[in-house]
């Protein structure tokens, strides 16, 4: 079963939602897709996921699988990365693997990802900037502006 992008339930509401969607609550999955552009609900056989990986739905395989390209164990700034093997239907234990920015197709827990979660129009997109400065393009440093302007002047001549 698949629906249009949904807000996945939390630990408290996971069991209830699983019985509403699937005949067997052990089959319920609410996963980001392989493209990290939406989350959907599925009734699938649980898969064992290795530590350091989030689980995603792979539409080509039609099953839950590792997110190999986004291993969170290699990202020092990814908070909440699974440290032990877990079943794919237990993703609710790792909310960092559920919260995605569908516009930028990344995990919100990754510091390089803009801070807007899926299906939440009330949250504005703000770029996480580790230096603490503004991420606004108009606040570029003076040397960058000089470089940009000199390039424009050079093109004119």
> What would you call the structural class?
alpha+beta
> Which assembly state applies to the chains in this document?
single chain
Strand order of the largest sheet: 1-2
The stretches of 5 or more residues where confidence is low (pLDDT under 50) are 118-141, 143-155
Helix content: 10-25%
Order of helices and strands: HEEEEEEEEH
- Count structural domains: 1
Beta-strand percentage range: 15-25%
Number of helices: 2
User: Which shape, going by the Cα principal axes?
Assistant: globular
Mean pLDDT: 74
Mind telling me the C-alpha Rg?
20 Å
User: Count the strands?
Assistant: 8
Question: First CA to last CA: what distance?
Answer: 62 Å
Largest sheet: 2 strands, antiparallel
Summarize the structure in words.
With about 160 residues, the protein is an alpha+beta fold. It has one domain (about 10-155). The chain has 2 helices and 8 strands; from the N terminus they run H-E-E-E-E-E-E-E-E-H. A two-stranded antiparallel sheet has the order 1-2. The chain has a two-stranded antiparallel sheet with strand order 3-6. A two-stranded antiparallel ribbon has the order 4-5. The longest helix is centred in the C-terminal third of the chain and has 15 residues, at about 140-155. It starts with 10 loop residues before the first helix and ends with a helix. The model is unreliable at about 120-140 and about 145-155 (pLDDT under 50).
């Amino acid at each position: 079963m698949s629906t249009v992008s949904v807000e996945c339930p939390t630990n408290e509401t996971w069991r209830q939602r699983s019985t509403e969607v699937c005949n067997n609550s052990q089959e319920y999955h609410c996963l980001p897709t392989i493209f990290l552009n939406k989350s959907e609900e599925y009734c699938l056989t649980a898969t064992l996921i290795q530590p350091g990986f989030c689980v995603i739905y792979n539409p080509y395989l039609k099953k839950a699988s590792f997110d190999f390209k986004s291993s969170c164990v290699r990202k020092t700034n990814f908070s909440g990365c699974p440290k032990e093997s877990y079943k794919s239907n237990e993703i609710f234990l790792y909310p960092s693997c559920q919260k995605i920015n569908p516009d930028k197709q990344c995990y919100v827990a990754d510091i390089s990802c803009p801070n807007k979660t899926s299906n939440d129009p009330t949250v504005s997109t703000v770029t996480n900037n580790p230096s603490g400065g503004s991420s606004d393009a108009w606040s570029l440093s003076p040397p960058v502006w000089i470089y940009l302007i000199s390039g424009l002047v050079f093109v004119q001549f």
